[in-house]
Structure formats: structure tokens, C-alpha cells
Amino acid sequence: MRWWKMLGLAGIMGVAATGVVIARAERRRRAYTPEEIRTRLRERLEDADHLTE
């Protein structure tokens, strides 16, 4: 029975770690200003256009 407890604890730790990673990425994403987002999207579009030529 002891290994079940360890497996459950490892699962909970994995879920918590995933939540931390997602929250950190979301915070980083929201830190951009609308103008920065537009600029980045335009750059990505230009890069994609160059790849299709």
C-alpha cells in the first residue's frame, strides 16, 4: 500500500508543477503591449512568406 501513496504524491507534484509552468507562461504572454504583439505577428508573417517563396 505504501507505493500507492508515493505514486499519488508524485502525481500531485506533477500536476502542481504543470500549473506553475502554465501560470508563468501566461504571465509572460500578458506582459506584452498590443503594439509589441502586432510587431511580433508581422515579423512571423514575413518569415512565413519567405519560407513559401
From TrEMBL:
Name recorded for this polypeptide: YtxH domain-containing protein
Gene source species: Nonomuraea rosea
